[in-house]
Specification:
This protein has about 300 residues and is an all-alpha fold. The chain is built from 17 helices and no strands. Helix 10 runs parallel beside helix 12 and helix 11 packs antiparallel against helix 12. The two termini are about 35 Å apart.
Length: about 300
C-alpha cells in the first residue's frame, strides 16, 4: 500500500515481513508472499533492481509451482516494472496482462497496460501501440469503476501527447489531473503531473511558472522516494534557471541532480534526458573550477535549502 506514497517505508515493512517469514520458517506460500512484497517494494524504491528481480523471479517460480495464478501474474508484472531491458520488460508485462485478463481481473489488466505504455513512453518506442494500450486501460478502468487506473491512463495519455509535441492538449489535462491527484494523495503521479506542467510552461517560455511547478515536483518526489522523478525535476530546473541567466545556481542544481542519479541503477539513470551539451555550456560560462565547485555544493546542500533560493 505504501509503495506509491513512501517507498522507503514500504521497503522497511517488506523487509520486516521477509525477515519474520524466514525466522518463523513460514510455509512455502507465505514465504513466496514475503519475497513478492520485498521485490515489489524494492522495485518502486528503484535503487537495487537486480535484488528486486531476484526476489520477484523466485516468488514467481514458487507461485507457479503452487498453482497460484494471480500472484504469479503479479510477480511477472513486478519483473516488468524492474527489468532494465525495455523489450524483456514489455514481454513480462504482456504475459501478466494476458493472465489477469484470463482471470477477469480487469483492474490489474488495466494496470499492466498502463505500465506497458509508461515503459514505452520513457524510451520513446512503440508509441502507436502505447496509445492503443492506454485506450484499452481506460476502457477497463471505466468498466470496473476504478478511479486509480483511469487517472494513470489519463496521465500517461497527457505524457504521450507531450512526447508528440502537443503541449496545448497536454497542459489542460495535467492541470485537471493534478487537482484529482491531490485529492487522492498519489504523490508519485502528482510529481509527474507537475513535471509535465513545467515542460508545458517552458514550451511557452514561462520560466517563473515552470520554476514553481518544478520546486513542488522535486519536493513531492523526494517525499515519495521517487529518486528518478527528483533527478529529472532537478535537471529541468537547472536548465530553467540557466535560461534566465543564473548559471551558478543552475550548476548547483545539476550537482543535486547528480547526487540523486547516483542512487539509481544504470538503466534508470540512462532514462534521464541527455544533458552533455548543457554541462559543456555551463562549464564554458563558469570556468572549469567554478563549475566543479558549484556541482559539489549542490551535492552537499540539503534539498530544502537548495530549493529555498
Amino acid at each position: 500500500m505504501l509503495c506509491y506514497q513512501d517507498t522507503r517505508l514500504s521497503v522497511t515493512f517488506a523487509q520486516r515481513a521477509y525477515d519474520q517469514a524466514e525466522h518463523t520458517c513460514a510455509d512455502d506460500h507465505d514465504m513466496a508472499l514475503a519475497r513478492l512484497s520485498l521485490g515489489w517494494a524494492t522495485t518502486h524504491n528503484g535503487d537495487d533492481p537486480a535484488a528486486a528481480i531476484s526476489h520477484l523471479q523466485e516468488s514467481a517460480g514458487e507461485f507457479r509451482r503452487l498453482a497460484d495464478d494471480w500472484h504469479y501474474a503479479l510477480a511477472l508484472e513486478g519483473i516488468g516494472h524492474s527489468h532494465p531491458d525495455p523489450d524483456l520488460a514489455l514481454a513480462h508485462l504482456r504475459q501478466s496482462a494476458d493472465l489477469f485478463g484470463q482471470m477477469h481481473d480487469h483492474v490489474k489488466q488495466a494496470n499492466c497496460l498502463n505500465e506497458m505504455a509508461r515503459r514505452s513512453i520513457d524510451v520513446r518506442a512503440h508509441l502507436s501501440e502505447a496509445s492503443q494500450w492506454l485506450s484499452e486501460a481506460r476502457r477497463l478502468a471505466d468498466l470496473t469503476g476504478n478511479e486509480t487506473e483511469r487517472l494513470h491512463a489519463e496521465i500517461l495519455q497527457a505524457r504521450l501527447d507531450q512526447c508528440r509535441g502537443d503541449h496545448q492538449l497536454a497542459q489542460p489535462r495535467f492541470e485537471r489531473l493534478l487537482t484529482e491527484l491531490r485529492r487522492v494523495g498519489d504523490r508519485r503521479c502528482m510529481s509527474r503531473c507537475l513535471l509535465g506542467l513545467a515542460h508545458a510552461a517552458l514550451h511557452h517560455n514561462d520560466h517563473e511558472t515552470a520554476r514553481h511547478h518544478l520546486a513542488e515536483c522535486i519536493t513531492v518526489a523526494d517525499v515519495a522516494g521517487d529518486t528518478l522523478g527528483m533527478a529529472d525535476g532537478l535537471r529541468l530546473l537547472a536548465k530553467c534557471c540557466h535560461a534566465t541567466g543564473d548559471s551558478g545556481y543552475a550548476a548547483s542544481l545539476l550537482g543535486a541532480a547528480d547526487d540523486a542519479a547516483a542512487h539509481l541503477d544504470p538503466a534508470r539513470r540512462h532514462a534521464l534526458p541527455f544533458d552533455h551539451e548543457f554541462r559543456v555550456t555551463l562549464e564554458k560560462e563558469l570556468g572549469a573550477d567554478a563549475f566543479a565547485s558549484a556541482l559539489t555544493a549542490g551535492q552537499q546542500t540539503p534539498l530544502t535549502q537548495l530549493l529555498a533560493r
